[in-house]
Write a structure and sequence with these properties.
The protein contains six helices and seven strands, in the order H-H-E-H-E-E-H-E-E-H-H-E-E. It is α+β, with helices and mostly antiparallel strands. The radius of gyration is 17 Å and the shape is globular.
């Protein structure tokens, strides 16, 4: 939202820029309103919950680009989401944003942050949303891998240099999803979050 406000200050006379910035701020305020309650108690997506849209992912890219520039990183962004997806938008945005911020935190200047979103067939052919975030850091410590995979329960505080690990785990669990965390052979790490999609909703799959 700070990025959107900066954009309004600099380019607010441009109607298209103004509308896009205000839309981003509005969705950000929705997230702030909803995320605390979502963390405390989430069993399944309510029928009237706002669904994830391509604009939500566009917002994430805008939000993270400021941090990318500040840390002198490179961003590789791939999104195959072309229509609304039947997963809770607020919670999914929060998970993805925290993962992206953590990837920036551990990557050295000149490193690359990767993001990929896609809809794939999961077990039994049911559609799933996959969000993949990669970094150029030193790799994931074993305790982080164990926490993300659900093999251990973390304490009351996030580990050093990790933002909202408890939030990530609680939200993914509440959405009925799973996390796979991998330290890559040639450096860096990749975290993949898989969320089930309401198979009663019509989905458009990107090629």
């Amino acid at each position: 939202m700070s990025t959107a406000l900066d954009t309004l200050r600099k380019f607010g006379d441009d109607c298209a820029v103004r509308v896009r910035a205000l839309d981003l701020i509005e969705r950000g305020l929705w997230s702030i309103r909803d995320v605390v309650g979502a963390v405390l108690a989430i069993n399944r997506m309510p029928p009237d919950a706002r669904r994830l849209s391509p604009a939500d992912l566009d917002d994430l890219r805008v939000l993270i680009e400021r941090e990318i520039a500040r840390r002198q990183l490179h961003l590789s962004w791939q999104s195959g989401i072309e229509s609304e997806v039947a997963v809770a938008a607020t919670e999914t945005r929060q998970v993805a944003l925290n993962l992206l911020l953590n990837a920036c935190e551990v990557s050295p200047p000149g490193g690359e942050i990767g993001f990929r979103a896609s809809i794939d067939d999961g077990c039994g052919g049911l559609p799933e949303l996959n969000l993949e975030v990669s970094d150029s850091g030193p790799g994931l410590p074993p305790d982080i891998v164990a926490t993300l995979s659900g093999d251990r329960v973390m304490g009351t505080h996030d580990p050093a240099h990790w933002i909202g690990l408890r939030v990530i785990c609680d939200l993914v669990q509440g959405l009925g999803g799973r996390i796979v965390a991998t330290t890559l052979e040639f450096g860096g790490s990749r975290i993949t979050v898989t969320l089930p999609i309401d198979d009663s909703a019509e989905q458009v799959r990107a090629a």
